[in-house]
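Sample entry follows:

_____
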Amino acid sequence: MKLFYVALVLGCSCFMTAQNKISGIISDKENKPLSNVIIVIPEIHKETISDSDGKYTLDNLPNGSFKTVYSLVGYSTKILSIAISEKESTQNITLEDNIVHMDEVIVSTAFNKLQSQNVMKVEHQSVKSLQQKGAATLIEGLATIPGVSQVSTGTSIGKPVIRGLSGNRVLVYSQGVRLENQQFGEEHGLGLNDAGVESVEVIKGPASLLYGSDALGGVLYFNPEKFANPQEFKADFSQRVFSNTLGSNTSLGLKTSTENWKFLARGSFNTHADYQIPDGDRVTNTRYNETDLKTGIGYSNSSFSSVLRYNFNRLDLGIPENGIGEQSTNHSTVYPKQAVNNHILSLHNNFYFKNSKLDADLGYIFNDRSEFEDSNVASLHMKLRTVNYDLKYYLPKLGKIETIVGLQGMHQTNTNSGEELLIPDATTNDFGVFGTANYEFGKNVLQAGLRFDNRKVASETYGIVGQEGYFEAIDKSFNSFNASLGYKTNLADDFTLRLNIASGFRAPNLAELTSNGVHEGSNRYEIGNSNLKNEQNLQTDLNLEYKSSHFELFANGFYNHINNYIFISPNGNIIDGNNVYDYVQANAKLYGGEAGIHFHPHPLDWLHLTSSFETVIGKKDDGSNLPLIPANKWNNNLRGEFNIKNWWKEGFATLNIESTFAQNNNSEFETRTNDYTIINIGLGGKITINKTTFNINLNTNNLFDKTYVSHLSRLKSDGIPNIGRNIVLGVTFTI
């Protein structure tokens, strides 16, 4: 891979052309220079910020026509189409006051548009904003986004749920490549650390057109930390402590850039003891330790850019089996436990031609997962190696029509070396080809696309016929055609409508096709079904948004019909004291949505009130309920923003009231869940003392130490509550 990277960089010299540059001054309507304005050209991933005099410069620009975005909190985002053909050009900009949030460039969709331009509604959240809520883990922060929940095992293991769909139905992207880490398993968490992650984008609904199989329910797209701006060096250190788990999260980052080269590195360590419930007891062996290392190097000129990133993540996870057992504040895990080493290597390349562009992403993921029952000899040891590629060619514009054609693929091998097997040794190969076009006319945008995919799965025979742990060899091929159609229009100056219809699919995973044994985490004897078909869905989404200077309103509705939905069902037999479950299929439907407001009244522009409600209903066609459907939730947040002279800037104070309704629409394998309300508070900002500046945030989550049980908690069946009061203190120093 290293030789390939060097050859690619050296080979780019044949593309080099004259170095184009845009510069200018950014000011407000009173001609006062504006600093810290973010200037970005999304199509070519170029970004800079204005200095204290409002001046900015973008170098090494290719020829062509690009949209340049100027954004600053408190001002209206400005978008200009600029034709770059001269070596130097000047573009002075005036921004107007506006309290509405900044418009974000969305990377996870096809054309990298601003959210206001997108045909599809995408939720965008910075990791900094999630941390300001006091989230202990990345998945805990994600669960605060409307429409997103988590299936949790204590505080250490969390799996994302998007509108009632989880597991292999939600695809995760990190560093621009799809994350493969045995995500089918109930005891397998997200496997990502929030250190070195800039933001997350959530696509709620089928995204198979761009991402292929497993994006049937949606996509979580994690944007990595940005490099420093040219001729800049930055270092930062952050420390967070958690009262409930006696936890600590430490992170150190360094980054620097020249005009052409960029480099960054970040290391972090996360450690927690067993979490404490409101009655004072600790849930035994919910402790965990995590080490994370991220590094990246990039090169760019006027015709080519390349970024190589590497992420190593090591997890030492306790597996709670005895509920409230031996009480301890030790951070060292005891048996049973997991050890997970995950490696992600990604290479992202952009080739810029006169009127077109080629994006080429390559990824290698190695997931090494071991489970220890009662000794340091792994009873379960799985090694998953995945190589994937993603090529997208952006054709020259044809009038107002933008077009992308692409192909994607994956080669994956799973091997076992432990005493037990959950899934057999197997090889999976994916191949997909697609095309999509975007047409803008007046205040309207129309986007459509078509895709074909093929997945081949071949496994090996293992064990003795008729006994537990026997796996019959399979050789299966799954094909699917999918399409999407989206329309966006402005019903009025501040009122936007989006309507999307898209199909998606998911090929059965190895566990569903081949299982033959006890899954310890769920105490079930599961039998796979090699005759399973693709899950195929069709979803309709309607989004309405109203935005004015002091009031915002959104309403999202969806209806999702899934043919051949895969689930487990008891067959009435018992093996070794465990009920036997078969993997079967039936048609299903999910429907619901999210709605909310954001109110910041004039002249109290410092005051923000947000309120959102989310609901989802999932049923099979026979009327029975689907499992793992989150309860309805109503979330209210009051936020005040302030500055105290020159020593406390960007200050904020928050009051959050999260009300979760009773979940009575439980499946036949679940119990009902009572309603509960949690109150959280927070305080923070940027503080300067004796020329030393640092960011601080202090949160108290579950302020009144409420005893509650989430419907999606895997400890619910043992009657174990979720975490009690947790005080979180975070401090970040930047050099």
Remarks:
- The helical segments are 2-11, 127-131, 138-142, 208-211, 510-514.
- DSSP finds five helices and 40 strands in the chain.
- The chain has two domains: 1-98, 218-734.
